[in-house]
Amino acid sequence: MTADDAARVLSEIGYHLRLEAADAYRARAFQKASAELLMNRPDLEALQRAGKLETIPGVGSGIAKVLNELVETGGSTYLERLRQEAKEPLAPGKLTLSGYRGDLHSHSDWSDGKVPIAAMAIAAQQRGYQYLGVTDHSPRMTIVHGLDGERLKLQRLQLKEVEQRVGIRLLAGIEVDILEDGALDLPDDVLAQLDIVIASPHLKLSLEPEQMTQRMLRAVENPHVDVIGHPTGRRPGSRPGATYDFEKVFKRAAETGVALELDCDPGRMDLSPDMARDAAALGCDFTLDSDAHAPNEFSYVELGAWMAERAGLDQTRLLNWLDADALTARLAGR
Questions:
Q1: How far, in Å, are 141, 224, 234, 235 from residue 262 at the CA level?
Q2: What integer pLDDT is reported at residue 96 of this predicted model?
Q3: Rounded to two decimals, what is the model's pTM?
């Protein structure tokens, strides 16, 4: 049992605790321990033999018990019980992150990220990425200092400078708000200048389902939208997210070539595996993104990869496995 494999198990346990048991405290504990395993990759078998699993930062007796069973059997009865209680119908698939070429959703200190673009670019390069989408927020998110067209022009200049200096392809992008009527928070002529546009619902998620359906349909039909970010806007355990005719919207997304995001932020995990499987059956493609606001949050992809596995997705349905040329061609062809 590798640390990476164990981290995915702990992450999924944390997800179920948030979603089903609404136990945010224990969920955070499991997700914190999961992140620790990914960052430091301890030798779990050696620690288990020495009875020292609890020496791993963030691992108490309960999590140590789960890790002990993982080392001994390769599985977790606790996770299986949580899946059964959640009436989880999905069978695990196989997905290796070795072909993951780049993260398409990240934030810098131009909006609500914690560090400059250069720091995010260097961290992405150190992870072996070919490219990174820099997708700060649009103006409506005033609390996070969202970018208008003029600031986006200035940011693109910095992206080119950092790209040349660091040596990683930086995609000029935006996470643009989907307004209540389905219009986007920036005009088409601004969006047309960007490499990638992620349109996300952030506010007014409690609209009536029919109104929300029309809102999302208008977004996926915008020719400049490449990805619908965290498509329900939910925060498991604290916010249920929007309700709309998912089948109608996902089917239209497939027809227009708009990808759906699996946002791996532990506080989001959106789309859920069951919804992602339904969307895949309708022909949708996907992105698997960290929504990172700091370099260490790029590891959210490893924490959330189990969602794609549980949904039965393989790399052919995930844009992040495309090389840089194929990705930019796919985005331009939208």
A1: 21, 20, 12, 13
A2: 82
A3: 0.92
